[in-house]
Amino acid sequence: MEEIPLWSFPFLNFNNKFLDLFETMLCGLLKIMKKELIAEQVLFLGLFALTLIQPKMTTAETAPSSPIYGPPNYAKLFERPPLDPPLPKVLKMPWECNVEALECTEENVKAAIEVAAANQGVSERLLMCISHNEARFNSYEVSDTNDHGPFQFHVNDPIWFRPYHWTMMDITPWAGHSYYEPLASAEAAAWLIKNGRGNQWTTFDLCT
Q1: Phi and psi for 162 in degrees, rounded to 5?
Q2: Side-chain half-sphere of 63: how many Cα atoms within 13 Å?
Q3: Which of 76-80, 92-96, 169-173, 201-205 has the lowest mean pLDDT?
Q4: Contact at 8 Å (CB) between 148 and 180?
Q5: What is the value of pTM for the model shown?
Q6: Which of 39, 100, 132, 189 could join 151 via S-S bond, C-beta 3.0 to 4.6 A?
Q7: Helix, strand or coil for residue 148?
């Protein structure tokens, strides 16, 4: 059999202190086989012998960079960059809307009336009836008599002790809020009814 030198395989990069043991084991395997082997079989036996004599590494040691010590880390090669975490969805309450952007709808007004009736302890049916008759649940309703919002708060002209336009909302805890805002308007209306001022609406007697 033609002798194949070990160094004809340059990728077999191992330490010289294992060379003698490697050759001894390889020759022993060839004698046991008792037949001629082709170069590929010799290479296989050599790699098998090398794995037997390879020293055990501790966890503190680092693995050699030679590819003989293990397959490449394909998971790391094809690792995708981390995605940005999705932004949490900001859920609006049913009565919330942008008054200035004219986003308030009939559904926002009705949802605000339900909340205001529960908070103030007044009849939800009564509030619904007043808003329906006064403004058809329209947050931006403006009448010919200068009434505004879903509950048609009348905007009074300035007088000597109030040098600005004001409405009945100004005597409620929601003073300063827009009368176009569904929840503030509904809460103010419910508060006025609760405190005996429901007669400011001409439809109050019709709805009771």
Answers
A1: -130, 90
A2: 9
A3: 76-80
A4: yes
A5: 0.56
A6: 189
A7: strand
